[in-house]
Specification:
- The structure is a single chain.
- The chain is of the alpha/beta class.
- It has three domains: 128 residues, Rossmann fold (3-Layer(aba) Sandwich), CATH 3.40.50; 231 residues, Alpha-Beta Horseshoe (pyruvate-formate lyase- activating enzyme); 67 residues, Beta Barrel (OB fold (Dihydrolipoamide Acetyltransferase, E2P)), CATH 2.40.50.
- Helices cover 32% and strands 24% of the residues.
- The chain is built from 13 helices and 22 strands.
- A six-stranded parallel sheet has the order 2-1-3-4-5-6, sandwiched between helices.
- The protein starts with a strand and ends with a strand.
């Protein structure tokens, strides 16, 4: 029995696909292990959103070669689709598989035997043009954590100036509502309490065979009926696709939680135009206002990019002030990095790397202020926490339905259980401490 280890870089979508691929290995008789167990095969699922993600891939390959110099190393994912030749020349890499080929690992690579050291780099590559790869592969994570990431959509038709994802994953395409429901029922049968819906552009759900046949609202209405799943969480949705109908449905749902993550990227309409985004900041303001009107305690996360070509200092301050005034809960801050074959590389002037770093620092500080203020707004209120398996220094944690991270004294009875708690105070680690929870009927004190 050969041992295989997996390492995932990047987004929730990558995690869902890695987990699905790993299950296919186990079904064929392979033993899934950690990197430290000196596996015979290393599968590295890559991201290529930023330059740093590429560097991480090279670092993981180096570590794999240290752990087992005789191990077979296969690279899959977005970076593998975009730069197969470059990856194939990394010392220790045995195979590179593109966007479609990664789901055929077992058939393409057979026994995973290392070839002689003289093998040409081209012979390691299993990858075709992304425009030809329109198959959809149902994927979801399982047994990796308390929450499951369920992929419902792949690819993207939005040509944002800075983004390589359409080049790495192809055109927008989706699962069917029926297949998603089937997967949700399978997940529920494995005692999973929360499903996070993920994809490249999930608000564009419904495109099958190049035609729109269903939509995202239809999907979530059907998922809301699935028994056995206590929570559904929407991972990220574009502001122009987040309709009032979706917001109102989530507000009325008992299973879909009050938490949205909505990419903004810039608070300057001029920069949004340079980025080729499909909305203006006024629409974003409307979306946030609508959410807070019907769900005052809703958590709202925001993606924002700093240092995009053409972004002046004044336009960055426009973004900063816009975010500062918005009733949002936290930021995911991305520092722009040049990516080949994107429109942004030809836009001038270019923002210096030192200026990008300074702008990023300012927004990270703002994010911490926003998160603390949001947490403080929730103190004294009662919510339900889904406790997770991670235990550190005798403490465990979990998230409320509106994405407040809670800490409590470790109790094995709480793992993968949803319990009612009262939020007390925010500690120095930006974790919410709680005063009590329901455990099997009686009320127990959760000391902190």
């Amino acid at each position: 029995m050969k041992k295989v280890a997996f390492y995932t870089l990047g987004c929730k979508l990558n995690f869902s696909e890695t987990s699905t691929i790993s299950r296919s290995f186990e079904e064929r008789g392979f033993q899934k292990v950690d990197f430290s167990a000196r596996p015979d095969i290393f599968i590295i699922n890559t991201c290529s959103v930023t330059e740093n993600a590429d560097k991480k891939c090279k670092k993981i390959v180096k570590e794999a070669n240290k752990i087992n110099p005789d191990g077979f190393v296969a690279i899959i994912g977005c970076y593998a689709q975009l730069k197969p030749k470059e990856i194939s020349e990394i010392e220790g890499v045995d195979a590179v598989l593109g966007a479609a080929e990664k789901f055929k690992l077992l058939d393409l690579l057979g026994t995973f035997e290392k070839a002689p050291g003289t093998t040409r780099s081209e012979d390691k590559i299993y990858s075709g043009e992304i425009s030809d790869k329109l198959d959809y592969h149902t994927s979801f994570s399982l047994n990796d954590r308390t929450r499951t990431f369920l992929k419902v959509q792949d690819g993207c038709d939005y040509p944002c100036a800075y983004c390589t994802i359409p080049l790495a994953r192809g055109k927008s395409r989706s699962d069917t509502v029926l297949n998603v429901l089937k997967a949700a029922h399978e997940i529920a049968a494995n005692d999973v309490k929360e499903i996070v819906l993920t994809g490249v552009n999930i608000g564009d759900f419904g495109i099958q065979g190049g035609e729109r046949k269903e939509n995202f609202l239809e999907l979530i209405r059907e998922l809301d009926k699935v028994e056995g799943i206590e929570r559904f969480r929407i991972s990220s949705i574009e502001p122009n696709l987040l309709t009032n109908e979706i917001i109102d449905f989530v507000a009325s749902s008992e299973r879909f939680v009050p938490h949205f993550h909505i990419p903004l990227q810039s608070g300057s309409n001029k920069v949004l135009g340079l980025m080729k985004r499909r909305y203006k900041r006024e629409l974003y303001t409307e979306r946030v206002a609508r959410i807070k009107e019907v769900m005052p305690d809703c958590c709202i996360g925001v993606d924002v990019i700093v240092g995009h070509p053409g972004e002046t200092h004044e336009e960055f301050l426009e973004t900063y002030n816009f975010l500062n005034d918005l009733d949002i809960s936290y930021l995911h801050v991305f520092t722009y990095s040049e990516r080949e074959n994107t429109a942004a590389v030809s836009i001038k002037p270019v923002v210096s790397k030192s200026e990008r770093a300074e702008r990023s620092k300012m927004l990270h500080i703002l994010s911490e202020k926003k998160r603390r203020f949001f947490y403080e707004q929730q103190t004294g209120k009662t919510f339900h926490v889904l406790f997770e398996e991670d235990v550190e220094n005798g403490m465990m944690s979990g998230f409320t339905e509106n994405y407040v991270r809670v800490t409590a004294k470790y109790d094995p009875m709480l793992i993968n259980e949803t319990k009612k708690v009262k939020l007390e105070s925010v500690n120095e680690n930006m974790l919410m401490e709680v005063s009590e929870a329901e455990v099997n009927g009686p009320t127990y004190e959760l000391s902190h």
